[in-house]
Design goal:
The complex is a heterodimer of chains A (10) and B (212). Chain A is an all-beta fold. In chain A, 0% of the residues lie in helices and 20% in strands. Chain B has 212 residues and is mostly helical. The chains are: A mainly beta (10), B mainly alpha (212). Chain B: One of its GO terms (cellular component) is endoplasmic reticulum membrane.
Chain lengths: 10, 212
């Protein structure tokens, strides 16, 4: 599970 | 990018455009909480600082810039250009009671104790409650214009659609962010009462009017 690896959301 | 995320972003964008067009066309910001608009500007500013140090996609960059510009544009219209129409006597929510707890919580519950990470977390917490001054204003005046209701509905739908996006991402990409999810659920729950009134009244052509 990747937790918040890249914040790609707005 | 999935359909929920895209619809969520479009709903968010539409909300912001509805608000700007409403103020511009009617030359009035009556019924709109300047306090909520200030909170949203703080939210976008603290969250989108990563424009400086991280590039994700042209879509991501453009949307961030649009949200920032629209947010500051709204504040300009409310506090400068159409200041005379601003409902200052009803917009009395104390925003420090939202900003301070969001800041404290961001310092305690975050993914990493780093300046940008704490600011991002603060923006997520603050966004979840940023609509409260607006809802408070509507409850104080007891009514909202249809266009203001459409704005609120789009703004509420945005985070609700993000919840579906997070469910999808959990299963499809093994991706989740508990801070965003919990805050997003809180944010959506705050709109539930309004959603009910919107569906039962505004969509049937009636004005959103609260019982006296």
């Amino acid at each position: 599970i990747v937790i918040n690896e890249i914040k790609d959301e707005l | 990018m999935n359909i929920f995320r895209l619809l969520g972003d479009l709903s968010h964008l539409l909300a912001i455009i509805i608000l700007l067009v409403k103020i511009w066309k009617t030359r009035s910001c009556a019924g709109i909480s300047g306090k909520s608009q200030i909170l949203f500007a703080v939210v976008y500013t603290s969250r989108y600082l990563d424009l400086i140090n991280a590039f994700i996609s042209p879509y991501n960059t453009i949307m961030k810039i649009v949200f920032l510009a629209a947010s500051y544009g709204t504040i300009y219209l409310m506090y400068m250009k159409f200041k005379a129409t601003y409902d200052v006597n009803h917009d009395t929510f104390r925003i420090e009671f939202l900003i301070a707890p969001a800041a404290v919580l961001a310092l305690i519950v975050n993914h990493a104790f780093e300046p940008l990470e704490i600011l991002w977390t603060f923006s997520i917490y603050l966004e979840s409650v940023a609509i409260l001054p607006q809802l408070f204003l509507v409850s104080k005046t007891g009514e909202a214009e249809s266009i203001t209701s459409h704005y609120l509905f789009m703004l509420g739908s945005y985070r609700a659609l993000y919840i579906f996006n997070w469910i999808y991402r959990y299963y499809a990409e093994n991706h989740y962010d508990l801070i965003a999810i919990v805050a997003g659920i809180v944010q959506t729950v705050l709109y539930c009462d309004f959603f009910y009134l919107y569906i039962t009244k505004v969509l049937k052509g009636k004005k959103l009017q609260l019982p006296a």
